[in-house]
Amino acid sequence: MNYVRIPEEIIQDVSISEKRVIIFSYLCCRRSLDDTVAFSITELVEWSKLKPNYRTGKINQKYWSVLERFTELNYIKTKLNFKRLTSEQKNSNEYLNVLINNEKFDMTERYGIIYFDELQKILNFKKELENNEIETNRISSSQILLVLSYIRLNMNRIPNKPRCCYRLLKTISDDIEISERYIKRIITILDKLNIVKYKEMKRNRYLDGEKNICFSTTPKVFADYKVYTKDDYGNHVIDQAYSWKNEMEAQIKFLENI
């Protein structure tokens, strides 16, 4: 089964730029059997569907700063000269070979999973949605991957309970530092890509102290469009018994009865 696991530590570390999940995904995809990754900054940026720019404060430096933070957190064991790399006045095609920490990459608790087919859809989301009337301007693949990994991190996996995540947009925004306006657009994109479906709950009506009618904000409910299970031979296959609609209905019913 081809997927990447994004650690909670990476997803919720807002001291790192919003590029953190897309860069971590790249390292996972390019990881060799000996736990090394060979890459150039130009290739990494272009893989992200962006245009390399070596100038001060532009994309190359932003990517190097994320990689430097990954090194500080011991995800990358190789010590690179980031001062030199960030000051280079060129879009470098020089390949660097770094050793990653397999214990940190292969964590088994608290992570958000992203499948390779989903990753490709998100990297090419503008082409995927070109025939849909969806606003994609100023939205990046890195932002979509960050929101998706956050939803997956918080998706319920307890047996006999709905396989859903429910959150206020404000909570998501506070946790990963992407604006509510952008998150609202991103979850629409994920829905249209058939990666994660969502539904808005009805707002709760109540009377305030002066008997005025008020409405309280309710969370969005998220469910995976599809999930995987293992067949009799141990192979990962799509779970045909799973229904995101059923999971979502069960979760909403539970929330309405709290």
Query: What's the average pLDDT?
Result: 92
> Over all CA atoms, what is the radius of gyration?
20 Å
Question: What structural category characterises the helix and strand content?
Answer: alpha+beta
CATH level-3 fold name of the largest domain: Arc Repressor Mutant, subunit A
User: So how many helices?
Assistant: 12
Give the tally of β-strands. Answer: 11
* Beta-strand proportion: 15-25%
Helix content: 40-55%
Supply the number of structural domains: 2
CATH architecture of the largest domain: Orthogonal Bundle
| Physical arrangement of strands within the biggest beta sheet | 5-9-6
CATH class type of the largest domain: Mainly Alpha
The ordered H/E elements are EHHEHHHEHEHHHEHHEEEEEEH
Shape: globular
Oligomer: single chain
Please give the largest β-sheet. Answer: 3 strands, antiparallel
Q: What is the terminal separation in angstroms? A: 37 Å
